[in-house]
Amino acid sequence: MADCEQLAGELKVLEELLKQTSTEHKRREIIKRIDQIKAEQQKHGCLETANSP
Questions:
Q1: What's this model's pTM, rounded to 2 decimal places?
Q2: Residue-wise pLDDT tens for the chain (53 aa)?
Q3: CB within 10 Å: which end of the chain, N or C, has fewer?
Q4: Cβ–Cβ under 8 Å, residues 47 and 9
Q5: How many CA atoms lie within 13 A of 29 on its CB side?
Q6: How far does the chain reach from its first CA to its final CA, in angstroms?
Q7: 40, 2 Cβ separation under 8 angstroms
Q8: Gap between the Cα atoms of 31 and 53, Å rounded
Q9: Which residues contact 36 (CB under 8 A, 6 or more apart)?
């Protein structure tokens, strides 16, 4: 199980990869994984502290 810091790191890498990827199939795979990570972050409560003003 990944912790919040690991998830945030993977998310950052995937977002950079998404910017550099032009093939639609690969983009869909990356977006799917980004969505999975965001769901996992929410499940672990990672986003609650990160989004506080």
A1: 0.81
A2: 579 999 999 999 999 999 999 999 999 999 999 999 999 999 989 977 544 44
A3: C
A4: no
A5: 7
A6: 28
A7: yes
A8: 27
A9: none
Taking the C-alpha atoms of residue 42 and residue 19, their distance in angstroms, rounded to an integer, is 24
Q: Is the dihedral of CA 53, 51, 13, 16 positive or negative?
A: negative
> Which of 36, 1, 39 has the alpha carbon at shortest distance from 47?
39
| Tokens 């890498």 -> residue | 13
Burial pattern 11-33, b for ≥16 Cβ within 10 A else e, equals beebeeeeeebeeeeeeeebeee
Structure tokens at 21: 């990827």
Distance between CA atoms of residues 26 and 29, nearest Å: 5
